[in-house]
Write a structure and sequence with these properties.
With 465 residues, the protein is α/β, with parallel strands linked by helices. It has helices at residues 17-45, 47-52, 54-79, 94-113, 116-141, 258-275, 302-308, 338-361, 388-396, 406-415, 429-437; strands at residues 2-5, 88-91, 143-148, 152-154, 159-167, 174-184, 189-190, 193-199, 203-212, 217-228, 236-250, 255-256, 284-290, 312-317, 324-329, 367-372, 377-381, 421-426, 448-451, 461-462. Strands 2, 4, 6, 7, 8, 10 and 11 form a 7-stranded mixed sheet that branches. A 5-stranded mixed sheet has the order 17-16-15-18-19, with helices on both faces. A 4-stranded mixed sheet has the order 1-9-5-3. Helix 1 (17-45) packs antiparallel against helix 3 (54-79) and helix 4 (94-113) runs antiparallel to helix 5. The longest helix has 29 residues, at 17-45.
Length: 465
Amino acid sequence: MESFRFDRSDVRKRRDMGSVNRNVILFGTLLIIVGLSLVGWEVATGMFFRRTGPMGYAAVLALGISCSVWGLKDIVAQIWPRLAARGYYFRLPREGLVFLILTVFIFSGSILGRSNMLMMVFSLMVGAFLMNGWLTFVMLQGALTRRTVPSRTMAGEPVGVALSLENRVPWISARLMTVHDTVSHASQSLDPEVLFVQVPPKSQATGHYHFEPAQRGRYQFSRIDITTRFPLGLVQRGVHRDQFQEMLVYPRIGHLRPGWTRQRSNSEELSNQSRGSAGTFQDEFHQLREYRVGDDRRMIHWRTSARLDDLMVAEYQEVRDRDLYLIVDAWLPKNASSTEIENLERGLRFATTVSMEALHANRHSSLYVELLGEESFRWHGDVERDPDSLLDAFAVLSARNDESLDQVRQLISAERLRSRRTVIVTQRPVAIQKLLLNWEDGVPPDVEVLGTSQAGLAGVFADSD
């Protein structure tokens, strides 16, 4: 079991699949050159034919053609994987390359020196090489992998991914097999791996790896590679399986400071003053109790009183929670700096925190959210509505570069006749405040504008550690 974290500081822990593919192509090209050179040299000089006769001549030609075909197959398998046999590929490690070079020298010495002892050593070495390649192929042919990934998580939270390896071969155990996963994000990539020491015949084993996604967004799990060098380490064979899965990572939820609570209380107080008291029966029903001297007769619940043969009074509690209308202006300038990108992400973390707090802390109010990015998103709900769609929208929201404030102006204009608390979270608070001060009818709308810089949110929001 291994643990990984998506972070630029961990680049050294990643396995660059592109460089591996280039190495395989270079090795295939080298095999083609060596094979063709060997065939051309023997045809031009005829040295092996003069010394060993037709048998040596045929052996040299067969070796050269085999190397050329082998290298060509590896190149084709890397460039056009669908043309390869079920995605199998071959890689010769450094130990195997040295072993192969020694084998060629021993073969040449046995032919040129007509030594039976060297020929026997050559045969043993070739047998070991072929046995290693055949055994790895058999184990890979019977291997089947599955991946289990959570569909949603939150940035900064550890995520566990399960990789299972099934050995379908009925007579041999799968040993020392490494399963490499491929995880990609818009700005990062990772190639975690799990080692399976032994999987008995007709059985299955499961391994896990963990990582912490540091950024929100869409994480895609695609290719799974199974590789092994068992038993001698001379040949490494692999097979890749395409298993496409996706995981959404929400912005990390932080903590709202007391400043946000004070602003909400002031907003609700102003809302009550502006609406006035419409009477007790405009509030939410609380309970029934017995009539007491001095109670308002209008509060008597006559139907219950008739059923119980006693005067009962309906009590109501004042509803002070005010609906929240949250507008998130996901704007970034062209060629945005890292600070501006971080400010946008901080604003999204703040907006996500506010949304979750509004849904779970206020039982008597509703939440309205407008996300203004490359694609706009509108959401309305209360505590009883599943917020998954809202969190999904926060996860995949892409910033826009349009300088226009027309969308913000239209939303504020449509909101002016309502009594909801309106909050705009934006990276350009000065421009929006200027828009409010220069409103068409001369009366600036009652809107709170919060910048997404660290100073702008310092009084109302704190990132979680």
